[in-house]
Amino acid sequence: MRTLLMTEAKLFLRTPLWAVLGVFLPTAVLLGVGSIPGMREPSPVTSGYRFVDLWVPSLVVIALAMLGLQVIPAAVATYREQGILRRLATTPVPPAYLLLAQVLIHAAVALAGVALMLVTAKIAFDVPIPRHPGLFLLALLLGLVSIFALGLIAASLARTGKAAGGLAMIAFFPVMFLGGVYLPRPLLPPVLQKIGAYVPPGTQSLQDAWVGNGGQPLQFAALAAFALGGTALAVRLFRWE
After folding, report:
1. Three-class secondary structure of residue 197 per DSSP
2. Is the pTM above the cut of 0.70?
3. Which residues neighbour 179 within 8 Å (Cβ) at sequence distance 6 or greater?
């Protein structure tokens, strides 16, 4: 596993574009949006909070969705398309090892991007740190695994890299929309806010932990079900060819 992880990390860093985007894109979007004066003013629509305060958790979605639903599916499916997986099938490497290596590498990049964005939000716009850091971290990890699991399902089914990208898009746009990336969650219709609270990556749980509202056990349970069920299904569906 260690050898596979090191090899995959070297291959990933040989094309550093996705690593750079994963680390810096959420912060770049934060700085761009935060530069709009209206985003830095309290609003009755957000119960007196500034839009930038409540939108920072939604920026987590960008890092997770881009890597989990775009990069991972394309990487694994391209391995299948090029016959690399067929060669690995002749070795003692279980499919779960390859999928785990992909998750660990991209998770490290995503978490680095989230950390940089949080530090920048505090320094540049005085956005407070999460009032319940433990719940925030739990929601972040469950959201990460659940999003990556959806990407792994697409990677397990697709024969080519392009096909994997197309399959992953089925989840990518709804995740971004319900996560409040295209439109701040307080401006979404109530029914969509309710749906978004229970689907990956758990933006509502991140937001609740951020502002100190605690956490809803049912929302965490839904994220855990997506994470565990999605991962198990990806391993079950995985094919070398």
Report:
1. coil
2. yes
3. 58, 61, 65, 185, 196, 201, 203
